[in-house]
Design goal:
Blueprint (H helix, E strand, L loop, with lengths): L96
């Protein structure tokens, strides 16, 4: 059995309290352009893997942006790191 909701006009779902979308199997949301906005904190979390993929990806923070993991790889063919101050800190640093 399938429940299908179809509209040829702008559609919105609004709640004045909490709202949850849950699926016990796969969940897909698709649009030409998508925006998710949170007034406080937005979290994307996967218990095993999170994949962000696109021809161009921008990660920006107004004050700070962190990429933290026990093993972290940055770059492939061409990688640019720039800033007024750049610090490399580690027990072993290989350049070249």
């Amino acid at each position: 059995d399938t429940l299908t909701v179809t509209s040829t006009k702008d559609t919105s779902v609004t709640s004045s309290a909490n709202m949850a979308l849950k699926a016990t199997k796969d969940f897909t949301a698709e649009a030409k352009n998508s925006t998710m906005t949170a007034s406080a904190t937005a979290t994307i979390e996967g218990t095993q893997k999170v994949v962000v993929k696109g021809s161009q990806i921008s990660i920006k923070g107004d004050a700070k942006a962190e990429l933290v993991a026990p093993a972290t790889n940055v770059g492939d063919t061409t990688t640019t790191i720039k800033g007024a101050s750049i610090k490399l800190d580690g027990a072993k640093i290989d350049l070249g």
